[in-house]
## 1
Amino acid sequence: MSSEKMTPHLSKKIKVLSFFCILLVLYIHTYYNEGEKYESCMFLVSLFGQGISYMAVPLFYLISGYLFFLGTEHKKVDVIFLKQKKRVRTLLVPYLIANALNLVFYLMLPFVARYIPSIQPFIAHNLLESAGNGWLDKLYFSFFSGPLAFQLWFVRDLLVLVLFSPLLYYILKYVCRSKTSCILLLCLLSPLVYFRPTAFLWAMGWFCIGGLIVMNPYISITNCCSWKPLGILSILVCFCLVLVNALSNIGLINFEVRSAWIIISGIIGIWIIYDCLFMESRQSGVELLNLRIYGYTFFIYLIHEPFINIFKKLPLLISNTEWMIDFCYLVIPIVFAIIAMVVGAVLQKMFPKLYSTFTGGR
């Protein structure tokens, strides 16, 4: 394998897989309480939102760790401080703005519902009701313990990891001096990502594995075409495990697989198969989809809650039958992503500075 840690192909690959992951996150959050009484709906949820989608968040953490420690392996800790400073703009500012907008939304919700009762069916739950009665309770919940834009728990934990990144840097730099210590650290991190003792330790495990991959001098993941058999096997294993859990969820079998195996096999599979498909297509002159759409991944992530929970209920005004709920579950995440990209493109064109601030320049 190439010793390079970043190439144009890998940069494009990260953007494409990140976009794929945000679609999976949309499937996680497009859950219909109305569909719980339908076996077909619960089967689909088990396949997508509680199956394939399990790999989305850990892959995000893995990529985040890889990109954060990229280019630091032969430098002093000063480069980590510079990266921390950059994350204030790219992570902290969007985090604060998104939660502030959600706070305004949920504060206004009772007043709007009072004068427009017809919107009540679209409101699943006012999350501020979980925050306590005092303003300090609401602010603490909104910007930390919740957070109010609940999908941003990922960014909150990532910011904590960035805060402690100088310590992680020294550990990784020391460990990457030998293959033996790299293997030992990987063995120590594996229980964190497999057993998930807490959400934060689980996130730290994946983040550090990403850092370990990029900082060690022994392996590279920029071109995995030679691992094609492993990629195919991993994809097949992931699919079979997801199917087993889906059948278990609807009571057809009495056996369930731990989600960690779905995550591990899925990440290995799509990482390798992507190279096998698109390294070859690039050589034959066939280009991937226009990369411009992948630039809206973070925007979709920031805004999809609470709006997708409102958007997904609109078709149920026409019908809430089993086939309608199944159809909506499959289609709504894709339709919402398209609409969000259009909205993002319009905002980016009309208010470029505001859009750049909101998305952290992404």
Note: The mean pLDDT is 90.
## 2
Amino acid sequence: MLRHTKVAVTSVAMSLLFLLDGAAHAHAGAGLPDPARAGVADKLYRVDCGRSVANDESVWTPGQNVGKRIEFSSTCWLVKHGNQWLLWDTGVPESAHNDPKGWSTLPRLIVYHLDKTLTGQLGELGLKPDDIGRVALSHTHGDHIGNVSLFPHARILMQRAEYQWIHSPDGKNENVNQLMALARKLMGTPKGLQLVDGDTDVFGDGSVTLVATPGHTPGSQSLLVHLKHTGYVILSGDVAHLEENFENGIVPSLNTDSTASVQSMEKVRQLMKTYKAIFFINHDKHQTDALKLLPAYYD
């Protein structure tokens, strides 16, 4: 990599400080909603954002299923709140659409395939990327942020801890370092970046709440959505990859903090009790295949 001049380094540093400082003042309001008083979102759509095949399930279930192939789903969600739209994660890059070779974050381990484009599915609802005012990111792994660049005018919501992590020095795990480098490339420098700290009320009425669930990555988050008929739904991010992992507190080897991972799973269990919430696990293909898919929705 070419060395930057002192002026260029200073410019980049100042830009980063501007993003961090500016985002602090864009905080949407912290805290979990009152179960009895929270507002409601109108609709929740599941968006097909890819599928993947991994060659060693034991990466996600340490000590078990060594060398066993496993299929995962990659799911995005679209929330309608009045005349506003929020997209939860952006999935596998659209450049992978119908590519038989697929796309990968870690080529030796996992390959992703994309059967439908995100923009095509938005189009089924008469929407264009510019109609999406907010894009919330569960974390910065490539299969979750692959299409951030499609939304240059949206407010990009992510935990401050996540943004700081991907811009921190490399650690001992080379796979994690590779994921961080890819995250920096895919994220770029979105002009609408909004960094949040902890549990955050997105619309100010308790209907959609970002829930801090660190462990998979330092700034991982989940999403709590309140709907009139369905009730509360928790969208997992990657707080758990499989239902069995969640039930038994199994932590994938790629997670950055095992203790935080277990604590976050317990936090979600408590939220499920408090809000009588349904829990949708992003990568659990068995569960995902049984859920409604856009243009069908939960309300």
Note: The CA atoms of residues 136 and 157 lie 4 Å apart.
